[in-house]
Each structure stands twice: as structure tokens, then as C-alpha cells.
Amino acid sequence: MLDSSTSTDSNQSVAVPVFAPDSAEMMAQFQNLEPLLAEIEQAYTPQTDTPPAPAEPVPTTGKTVVVMPAYNAASTLLKTLADLPQNVVDEIILVDDGSTDATVDLALREGLTVIRHKENRGYGGNQKTCYQYALEHGAEYIVMLHPDYQYDSRVVGLAVELLKLDICDVVMGSRIRTRKEALAGGMPAWKYLANRMLTITENIALGQNLGDFHSGFRAYRREVLETIPFERNSNDFVFDSQFLAQAVHFQFRMGDIPVPVRYFPEASSINFRRCVKYGICTLAVLARFWAQRLRIRPSKIFFSKRTDSDTENREELQQASQKKTGTPEN
Questions:
Q1: Residue 67: its H or E element
Q2: Which PANTHER family does this UniProt record tie to the protein (predicted)?
Q3: β-bridge pairing 218-221 and 64-70
Q4: Helix, strand or coil, per DSSP, at residue 273
Q5: Is residue 330 in a domain?
Q6: Could you tell me the CATH number of the domain that includes residue 196?
């Protein structure tokens, strides 16, 4: 609403507009804005209601089997068994790799399932038998534990729980939390340095974040062993590196837990020369992993046992040949 008033001075008079808003009109406009203001207020008002807690994971059930690749472990077997949580483990399978001591007799006396190799098949060859028998015996959760008393077997239950809760498919026991702890526990300095260098390299190459790629304490869900063609792996120590590269290739979920370790003369270990060979072979595994991923040179160790591996292998080889030569393979 517009009014006018007159300002008079000695020379002239000027009409000055004066705005006098209609109060009823303004109230109507504010009422139209009320829904919008309410929405804005609700959007920016902190929520006081506590969001619902995520559902607790429900542990799955199934048979838990501990497998022990053994070679001359008579002096440490009983101590290893004494620390195992009996309420977690349903069966213990010991595969003896041609021991010359009383390993087999002690294992039988303790009620273990014993498989004996007439000839030494190597560390990887021993594990192959361990896993084959575990699957045949109906294992749903498989823990590989050395019977040399180096790894603290009291944490077996924790590893199995991560599998049962479906948090991980593969659980590694990490020996290294800090440099001080590892060296104080008896790990040789050269072995610590080699472990750190290889583990960092493998984490980068495989896209993982594990604390220790070279631990002898491992736990798997059944489907891992049913998928990975571990039978095609080496019979030597590099079996472990191949297995983890395969686990990454098949996209299994990997995690680790700290496991206390002990270093003493009876604990199994490889010497410096074999350690160097193992490191070189591990780097070769990483090269094969990327050759497979980039389809440059497919490898049979990366073909699943759950598929027609022969057909799949032919297709992969043909694709690699075409990529390399630019012509189809007849």
C-alpha cells in the first residue's frame, strides 16, 4: 500500500513515497512459506534416535580338523597337542613324511588320525595329502599347524571363529607385530629382513594387507580347498606362496591374527641357502600371477577345480596366443 506525504521547504515541495505494507497480506505470504520452513528445519535438526545395531553374525557349524605336516616331530608333538583347545577341534590328522623317530607311534598313542608317506614328498607334497584327507573326512574348517611347537596352538579357536562367522575364508597367523617382538622371540635378523621385504612385495603385487605371508599357521574354509587346484602346486616350500596367490586370484577373503612363536633348535626352519631359493621362487609366483591376470601366459595353477579346467585352459591359451601373435590358433 502506497501513501505519500509532502515535504516543504522554502523553495519547493516534493512528494516522498512511504511504504506501509498491509499486515494481512504479509501474514498470508508467511503462511505459504511455513511448509518449506518446516522441511528445512527437519532436514537440519540432528537426529536423536539411535540407529538400530547391525545384526550379530551367526556362527556356522561344521567339522573342524587340524592337519599337521610332520617330519621328525617326536620331541615337540606332545607339547603342541597339549595347547590345542579340545573343545574346538573335532579331529587331528597327522601326515608323516618319512620320519625316522617316534613321531608316528606318539601320534597313534594320542588318538590322532595318521597317514604315513613311505618316502619324503617334501613340505608341499605333505600339505597336499593333509588337505585331501581333510576334505575326504568331511572337514568344513581346516587349520594347518606345524607340530614343532613353534606356533602357539592356543589361538586355533580364534582363527576358526573368524571362519565360522563368515568374516574370512583364509586366516593367517602373523608372527610379526613389531620388529622388537619378533627379534626378541628368536627370529634371526636376516630372516626378519627377508620376511619383511617379501611380505611388502607380495602385499603390493597381490593387493593385500597381511602382516606375514610366510607363516606356517593357516586356516581355511572348505570351499577354498575345493576351489584351489593345490594338487598342481610345487612339492617344495613355495607351495605356500602359490596357495596364497591362488586364493587372491579366486577372490577369497583373507585376514590374519597375531600368533606368538618360539624359535629353538627343534623347531623346523629352512637354512639361508634354501631361504634365498624360496624368495626367488616366490617372486616367480608373483610374475605368474600377473601373467595370468593380464592373459599373457595362463597357468594351470590358476584354474578352478569347480569348473571344466581343460576346456577353460584351452580357451585361455587360445586367447593368450591371439594376443601375443595377433592371429587365431588352429
A1: strand 64-70
A2: RFBJ PROTEIN (PTHR48090:SF7), UNDECAPRENYL-PHOSPHATE 4-DEOXY-4-FORMAMIDO-L-ARABINOSE TRANSFERASE-RELATED (PTHR48090)
A3: unpaired
A4: helix
A5: no
A6: 3.90.550.10
- Structural domain includes residue 170: yes
Structural domain contains residue 285:
yes
Per-residue pLDDT of the chain (330 residues; tens, 9 = 90+): 445 444 445 555 555 555 555 666 666 666 666 776 677 777 666 665 566 666 666 677 899 999 999 999 999 999 999 999 989 999 999 999 999 999 999 999 999 999 999 999 999 999 999 999 999 999 999 999 999 999 999 999 999 999 999 999 999 999 887 788 788 878 888 888 999 999 999 999 999 999 999 999 999 999 999 999 999 999 999 999 999 999 999 999 999 999 988 887 766 667 888 899 999 999 999 999 999 999 999 999 999 998 754 445 555 545 554 554 443 343
Residue owning grid cell 608333538: 77
Distance, in Å, from the CA atom of 44 to the CA atom of 280, rounded to the nearest integer, reads 59
Secondary structure E strands in 1-40? 2-8, 13-19
- In this structure, what C-alpha cell is assigned to residue 324? 601375443
Residue 180 lies in a domain: yes
* The dihedral sign for the CA sequence 60, 61, 62, 68: positive
Domain hosting 285: range is 64-294
How far apart are the C-alpha atoms of 36 and 127, rounded to whole Å?
69
The pair phi, psi for residue 320, each rounded to 5°, is -65, -40
Residue type, 27: M
Specify whether the CB–CB gap between 99 and 70 falls below 8 A.
yes
Number of separate domains in the chain: 1
